[in-house]
Design a protein that fits this description.
The complex is a heterotrimer of chains A (about 325), B (about 260) and C (about 260).
Chain A: H1 2-29, H2 45-54, H3 61-75, H4 88-123, H5 128-141, H6 145-159, H7 178-216, H8 219-226, H9 231-268, H10 274-283, H11 287-315, H12 318-321
Helix pairs in contact in A: 1-11, 4-5, 4-7, 4-9, 4-11, 5-7, 6-7, 6-9, 7-9, 9-10, 9-11, 10-11
Chain B: E1 6-18, E2 30-42, E3 46-50, H1 57-64, E4 72-77, E5 80-81, H2 87-96, E6 97-100, H3 114-119, H4 130-143, H5 160-172, E7 178-182, H6 190-207, E8 210-215, H7 218-224, E9 227-232, E10 235-241, H8 242-247, H9 252-260
Chain C: H1 2-15, H2 17-20, H3 52-88, H4 90-105, H5 108-117, H6 123-132, H7 136-150, H8 153-160, H9 165-201, H10 213-220, H11 228-256
The chains are: A mainly alpha (about 325), B alpha/beta (about 260), C mainly alpha (about 260).
Bound molecules: adenosine-5'-triphosphate and magnesium ion.
Chain lengths: ~325, ~260, ~260
C-alpha cells in the first residue's frame, strides 16, 4: 500500500509541472494588458513602463516563467496582488476554507442523494418509480448550477426568508457563543451546499443506476440466480459492490467539475471563497492572484484524484498488482 | 517456375512479450513465446507448422508479417531481412506475403462491403479505371467461388465460411507469392473445412502459390503439406517431410500427437 | 425519440426567430420595464422593456450556435488527437495523454475564466475557447477505441496489404469510431451550452447587445425575486435544450452501440 501511494505521488509531479506551465502560458498569452486598468490611455507611456517594471512584466516571458516557477517551488511565493499589494498566497489561503467547506459538504450531500436516487432507480428498474427518478436526475444533470442556486435563493432566502441569502456569517457573528456560531455557519452554507449537492447527485445517481443495472444483468448474476441465491443478497453482493467501487473513481473525476460549480455558487451566494476571488481577479487582470488561485485549484484537484485512486486501491486490491 | 528456390527463411527466431509495462518500481514480466525457431520454405511448397494451442505459432506469423518485433533472429524474404528495411520497402514486401487468419469474424472491417474490402488489396494504379477494378474484384470473388451478389454485402450478412472465402480473396488481391494461413479452418464446420481445403489446393496449383500453413489438426496437415514442422513450447521439435513425419516420427512428442489424433 | 423532437423544435425556432418572435428583440420600451407575464408579453419583459419571449427565441441562435460550433471544434481536435495518439502509440501517445490528463484535471470553468477573462469577451472568443478546451474527453474515447481497433485482425490484414497510413485511418479506423464520436459530440453540445451560460452569467461570455441565454440570466440577476420570470424562463430554456441533447445522445448510443453490430 505504501509503495503504491509513493508511486502515485511521484507520478503526480510531472502532471503538476505540466499543469503549472500550461496555466502560466495560458494567462500570459491571451491578449489583454494588465497595466491598462491602472491607466488612462492618455497618461502617456512612461507611467505605463513604470508600472510594468514594478510588476516584472517587462521581462521576456521565459524569464518571467522561470522566476515565477522558482519562487513558487522554492518559497511558495506567488508574488503580490497587483490590486492591494497583499501576498497572493495569503489571499488564497484566506479564501480556501469556505470553498473547501462548500465542496466537501456538497460532495457528501451529492453522494447521499445520488446513492438513494441511483440505487433506488436500479432496484425498481423498469417501473414508474424508476422513470420518475431517472427524469428528475436528468433534469438536475442538465441544469446550470448557478440557475438552481438563484432559484433556491429566491425561494428559500428571499420569498420565505428562512435562510440567509449571502455571505458565510451574519453581521453579529462575533458576538455569538460557540454553538450559535456553528448554527450560523450551517445556515449560511445550507443553500450553496444543497445547490451543488443536488447537481452532483444527478451525476452520481445516473452513473450508479446504469452500472448497477449492468451488473444485475451480467452473466455471473444470472448464474447466481440460477443457484437460488436470494435476490436481496445478489443485490448487495453483486450489484452494489460492482457499482460502488468504481464510484470512487467517478468521484475523483468529478472534483474539477465540483470546483467549477463551487466557483459559480460562491458568486451567486456572495461567499468569500476561491471562486469569488478568482472571478474578481480575472476581471481586474490581477495576474499573481489568478495564477495562485488556479495553481491551488489544480493542486486541490490532483490531491483529490490521488485520494480517490488510493481509496480505489484499498477497495479493490487488484489495481495494486497492475501498473 | 524456379524450382526449389528459397522463398522464406526464419533463423533462430526468439520472441518475447512483456506482459506488464515496466515502471520505475516494477520489472517487466517477460513471457518467452518463441525460443529459437529455424525453418525455411521453398517456392511452390507447403510447410505446415503443427502444435497445440499457445505454443507460439501465431507469434511466428505476426513476426513474419512485421507486426511483432523479434528479440533476435532473422526473417528473410528472398534474402532480404524484413526487419531491416525502410517502411516503404516493407510495404512492398508485405504485399507479397498475405495472411489469412483463424477468426474470419474479426478479420473483415465491419464498415466495408465485400467489394470494398477486396478492392483495397488491388494496387490503386494497377487497374486504371473503375470498370477494370470492378472486374478484378469479381474475378477474385469467382476464384474463391463467391458471386457477384456478394459484392455489396457487409461481413455480418455472411456465414463464417463465406467470410473466410472473402479473406482468402482479399489475400489474393495483391498477387502474393506466399500465403500464410494461420489455422484458417479451425473455426469452421467439418464439411466447410473439406471444401476450403480443396479450394486452397486448387488455388495453389492455379496461381503457383507457396503456403505456410498453421494448424493443430494433423489430418488436414496430411492432406495439404509437403513439409511439416512440429512445435512445442516455443521450439520446433521436429522438421521433416510429410511422409517421414507421419510414417516414421523421430520425436516422442510427434508420436503422441499422432496417437492422440488416431493417426498412429 | 423525445430528445430528437426537442432538439428539432429548438433548432427550428432558432432558425425561424424573425417569424416566431412576437416583438423586435432589441426594441426598448422603458414604460414597459420589468412587466410580469401577461397576454401581450407572454413571458414578461426585461429592465429595458424588451419582450422576454422574443429575446429567448433569438438567444437560441446564439446559445445553440455557440454550443454547436464549440462542440464541432472540440470534436475535430479530439478525433485528431485521439487517432494520432492511439495509432502512433509510444511517446507521442504518452505526451498527448499527459496533456489530456492535465487539461481534464483543471476545473473547466477556471480555465475558461483564464482564457476568456484575459481577452476581450465576444461570441467568437467564447466559442473558440470553449471548443479548444473541451476536446479532451473526445480524444480519450477515440484513443481508446483506436487502440482496440489497432489490434483487430482486420487492421493487421489491411496493413499487410501495404495500404498507406492515410488510407488505413480513413477507411478502417475513422468509420469504426464514428459512432461513439457522434454520441459524445451530441452530449458535448449540451455541456457547451451549460458552460457558455455560466460564462455569460459571470459577464465574461457573450456581451450585450448580443444575447445568449446566459446573458439573459445575467440580466435577471438585477432582481431575481421581483422579476422572477427572467431567471425562471431563461433557465427553463437552457434545461429543456440540454435535456434534449442528453436524451438524443443517450438514444444514439443505444442505437449505435457496437454490441448490437456484429
Ligand atoms: N500480445 C501478447 N502479449 C503477451 N503475451 C502474448 C501475446 N500474444 C501471445 N502471447 C503469449 O505467447 C504465447 C504464444 O501465443 P501464440 O498466440 O503465438 O500461440 P498459438 O500457438 O498461436 O496458439 P493458438 O493455437 O491458441 O492460436 C502464449 O503463451 C500467449 O499467452
Ligand atoms: Mg494462434
Amino acid at each position: 500500500m505504501g509503495a503504491y501511494t509513493v508511486r502515485r505521488l511521484i507520478g503526480a509531479i510531472p502532471i503538476l509541472f505540466i499543469g503549472l506551465t500550461l496555466t502560466f502560458f495560458l494567462v500570459h498569452l491571451v491578449p489583454g494588458d494588465p497595466t491598462l486598468r491602472f491607466l488612462d490611455p492618455s497618461m502617456g507611456s512612461s507611467l505605463k513602463e513604470q508600472i510594468s517594471e514594478k510588476f516584472g512584466l517587462n521581462e521576456p516571458l521565459h524569464i518571467q516563467y522561470i522566476s515565477w516557477m522558482y519562487r513558487i517551488v522554492g518559497h511558495f511565493d506567488f508574488g503580490n496582488s497587483f490590486n492591494n499589494g497583499r501576498p497572493a498566497s495569503d489571499i488564497i489561503l484566506d479564501a480556501l476554507p469556505p470553498t473547501i467547506l462548500v465542496m466537501g459538504f456538497a460532495l457528501i450531500c451529492g453522494l447521499m442523494f445520488g446513492m438513494i436516487g441511483g440505487i433506488g432507480a436500479a432496484i425498481f428498474h423498469g417501473t414508474k418509480f424508476d422513470l420518475i427518478i431517472t427524469t428528475i436526475m436528468l433534469f438536475f444533470y442538465s441544469m446550470p448550477v448557478f440557475w438552481l442556486g438563484i432559484m433556491l435563493l429566491g425561494f428559500f432566502a428571499v420569498n420565505l426568508n428562512w435562510l440567509p441569502a449571502s455571505q458565510l456569517t451574519s453581521v453579529f457573528h462575533d458576538q455569538l457563543n460557540i454553538l450559535d456560531r456553528f448554527t450560523d455557519y450551517f445556515r449560511h452554507l445550507m443553500l450553496p451546499v444543497i445547490t451543488l449537492g443536488l447537481v452532483s447527485a444527478a451525476t452520481f445517481g445516473r452513473y450508479l443506476r446504469t452500472s448497477m443495472i449492468e451488473a444485475m444483468n451480467s452473466g455471473y448474476v444470472l448464474a447466481a440466480r440460477a443457484r437460488g441465491i436470494s435476490e436481496w443478497k445478489i443485490l448487495v453482493n453483486y450489484g452494489l459492490r460492482n457499482a460502488l467501487i468504481p464510484l470512487i473513481t467517478i468521484v475523483g473525476m468529478t472534483i474539477p467539475a465540483l470546483f467549477s460549480g463551487a466557483v459559480i455558487i460562491e458568486v451567486v451566494f456572495s461567499l468569500p471563497g476561491m471562486g469569488r476571488i478568482m472571478v474578481e481577479a480575472v476581471l481586474a487582470r490581477d495576474y499573481p492572484v489568478v495564477l495562485a488561485a488556479s495553481t491551488m485549484a489544480f493542486v486541490a484537484v490532483i490531491i483529490g484524484n490521488l485520494l480517490a485512486d488510493i481509496g480505489y486501491a484499498i477497495a479493490d486490491p487488484r489495481v495494486r498488482l497492475e501498473s | 517456375m524456379g524450382h526449389s528456390q528459397l522463398l522464406l527463411s526464419v533463423e533462430d527466431l526468439i520472441i518475447h512479450y512483456q506482459s506488464r509495462k515496466s515502471t520505475l518500481f516494477t520489472k517487466p514480466e517477460i513471457v518467452s513465446a518463441v525460443r529459437g525457431v529455424t525453418f525455411s520454405i521453398n517456392s511452390g511448397e507447403t510447410l505446415a507448422i503443427v502444435g497445440e494451442s499457445g505454443c507460439g505459432k501465431t507469434s511466428i506469423v505476426m513476426s513474419i508479417l512485421g507486426f511483432v518485433k523479434p528479440v533476435s533472429g532473422k526473417i528473410k524474404y528472398k534474402g532480404t531481412d524484413i526487419w531491416d528495411v525502410t517502411r516503404e520497402e516493407l510495404r512492398g514486401i508485405r504485399r507479397k506475403i498475405q495472411p489469412v487468419f483463424q477468426d474470419p469474424h474479426h478479420s473483415l472491417n465491419p464498415r466495408m462491403t465485400v467489394g470494398q474490402a477486396i478492392e483495397d488489396g488491388l494496387w490503386p494504379h494497377q487497374y486504371e479505371d473503375m470498370i477494370e477494378k470492378q472486374n478484378g474484384v469479381l474475378e477474385l470473388l469467382r476464384a474463391v467461388r463467391l458471386g457477384k451478389e456478394h459484392l455489396n454485402t457487409y461481413p455480418h450478412q455472411l456465414s463464417g465460411g463465406q467470410k473466410q472465402r472473402v479473406c482468402i480473396a482479399r489475400a489474393l488481391a495483391p498477387n502474393p507469392e506466399l500465403l500464410i494461413l494461420d489455422e484458417p479452418l479451425s473455426s469452421q464446420d467439418l464439411s466447410i473445412q473439406a471444401t476450403l481445403v480443396n479450394l486452397l489446393l486448387d488455388l495453389k496449383q492455379k496461381k503457383g502459390l507457396t503456403y505456410l500453413f498453421i494448424s493443430h489438426d494433423l489430418r488436414i496437415v496430411r492432406s495439404i503439406a509437403q513439409q511439416v514442422a512440429v512445435m512445442r513450447d516455443g521450439i520446433l521439435v521436429e522438421v521433416s517431410d510429410r511422409d517421414s513425419i507421419f510414417n516414421n516420427p523421430q520425436h516422442s512428442y510427434t508420436e503422441s500427437l499422432l496417437k492422440s489424433s488416431g493417426l498412429l | 425519440m423525445v430528445g430528437a423532437v426537442i432538439v428539432l423544435i429548438i433548432f427550428f425556432s432558432a432558425l425561424g426567430a424573425p417569424i416566431l418572435a412576437p416583438y423586435d428583440v432589441n426594441a426598448q420600451n422603458l414604460t414597459m420595464s420589468l412587466q410580469p407575464p401577461s397576454t401581450s408579453h407572454l413571458l414578461g419583459t426585461d429592465v429595458y422593456g424588451r419582450d422576454l419571449l422574443s429575446r429567448l427565441i433569438y438567444g437560441a441562435r446564439v446559445s445553440l450556435g455557440i454550443g454547436l460550433s464549440a462542440a464541432f471544434i472540440a470534436t475535430t481536435v479530439g478525433v485528431f488527437v485521439g487517432v494520432f495518439a492511439g495509432f502512433l502509440g509510444g511517446w507521442v501517445d504518452w505526451l498527448l495523454m499527459r496533456i489530456v490528463d492535465v487539461l481534464m484535471g483543471f476545473p473547466r470553468l477556471v480555465v475558461m475564466l483564464l482564457a476568456v477573462g484575459f481577452g476581450t469577451p465576444s461570441i467568437w472568443l467564447t466559442l473558440t475557447v470553449l471548443g479548444l478546451l473541451a476536446w479532451m474527453e473526445v480524444a480519450r474515447i477515440v484513443r481508446g477505441e483506436v487502440m482496440v481497433i489497432r489490434e483487430m485482425l482486420y487492421l493487421k490484414a489491411a496493413q499487410a496489404l501495404g495500404l498507406k497510413r492515410s488510407r488505413i485511418i480513413m477507411g478502417y479506423i475513422l468509420p469504426n469510431v464514428i459512432g461513439s464520436v457522434i454520441v459524445s459530440t451530441t452530449l458535448l453540445i449540451g455541456t457547451m451550452i451549460l458552460v457558455e451560460a455560466s460564462l455569460s452569467f459571470l459577464g465574461l461570455g457573450v456581451q450585450p447587445p448580443n444575447a445568449s441565454w446566459g446573458t439573459i440570466l445575467n440580466q435577471g440577476r438585477v432582481d431575481p425575486v421581483g422579476a422572477w420570470w427572467i431567471s425562471a424562463f431563461g433557465g427553463l430554456m437552457i434545461i429543456i435544450t440540454v435535456v434534449g441533447f442528453n436524451l438524443l445522445g443517450d438514444g444514439l448510443r443505444d442505437l449505435l452501440d457496437p454490441r448490437s453490430l456484429t
